Amino acid sequence: MSAATASAPGDQQPAGLSMAQIEQVRTQLQSDIEMLQSSIQRLQYAQEGFGESMLAVSRLPTNNQDNSLLVPLSSSMYVPGRLSDPDHVLVDVGTGFFIEMRPKKAQDYFKRKHDYIQVEIDKLQKVLYDKLLTRQQINGIIQMHLQQQQQQQQQQK
Amino acid sequence: MAPDLNKKLEDEVEKYRQTQNDMKKFVTQQQQLFITKTENEFVKQEFENLDSEANIYKLVGPVLVKQELGEGKETVEKRLVYCEGELKRLASLMKDTEKKLEIHREVISKIQQQIATNK
């Protein structure tokens, strides 16, 4: 047996960690990745909400147009009505507060929120990408080690 | 001697688990506070961009109540101060709990060593 193959399993890897430690790192990485992915999903869902609000406000009739509508009284009954003040909308800004705004301001608000979330999503995407790369590298190291072990076992036969 | 030590070990591990549970609760509380704080900061920002003529409303149960911008700003500010206070308190609590965990770990490891040497 050559000196290179006379080594026990779990010895020092090129990365400087033992096999068990690498496994630990990989498990931690996996759970980090899953958490990041689920966070990004939740952010995208919230962002969609703001996008829809923006759309809804843009569809509001102006004063000169016909502003009759149907008001739901229950899930199966509607009553005809008219939008009394299409110039103002109440926007839920969080913690139970609503601000009366002009439709244009409301659209700006929703766009701002939408863009802010996009910035946060981009930050998370970057971190996620780095973690995915690291996971790939670690998988490569584990593969290599397994192959080394197999070769050792072959040679010992 | 050995059964005593084992019992001691069990007790100490149980204490460690309880402290860990406490820690988890603190982390959850901290996350919740963080969310509330961020939400209030958003509202504060929006209020700052309004002029004094703007109308704001507060949701109290099923009722939307008209409020003065000044009042709204005050409410949000008070909430923010409360959140920050709670976060500070939690942070120091968590530091202490972390120290407790460390002490537990040391005691457990000592007992384990004793058990090992007694065999």
UniProtKB/TrEMBL annotation, chain A:
Pfam families: Prefoldin (PF02996). GO terms for biological process: protein folding; RNA polymerase I assembly; RNA polymerase II core complex assembly; RNA polymerase III assembly. Gene3D superfamilies: 1.10.287.370. Belongs to the prefoldin subunit alpha family. NCBIfam families: prefoldin subunit alpha. PANTHER family: PREFOLDIN SUBUNIT 5 (PTHR12674:SF2). Signal peptide: none annotated. One of its GO terms (molecular function) is unfolded protein binding. It comes from the Eukaryota. It comes from Adineta steineri. One of its GO terms (cellular component) is cytoplasm. This is Prefoldin subunit 5. InterPro entries: PFD_alpha_archaea, Prefoldin, Prefoldin_subunit_alpha.
Automatic annotation (TrEMBL), chain B:
The keyword Chaperone applies. Residues 87-114 form a coiled coil. GO terms for cellular component: cytoplasm; prefoldin complex. GO terms for biological process: chaperone-mediated protein complex assembly; protein folding. The keyword Manganese does not apply. InterPro entries: PFD_beta-like (IPR002777), Prefoldin (IPR009053). CDD domains: Prefoldin_6 (cd23161). SUPFAM superfamilies: Prefoldin. One of its GO terms (molecular function) is unfolded protein binding. It comes from the Eukaryota. Gene3D superfamilies: 1.10.287.370. It holds the Pfam family Prefoldin_2. Keywords: Chaperone, Coiled coil. Belongs to the prefoldin subunit beta family. This is Prefoldin subunit 6. It comes from Adineta steineri. The lineage of its organism: Eukaryota, Metazoa, Spiralia, Gnathifera, Rotifera.
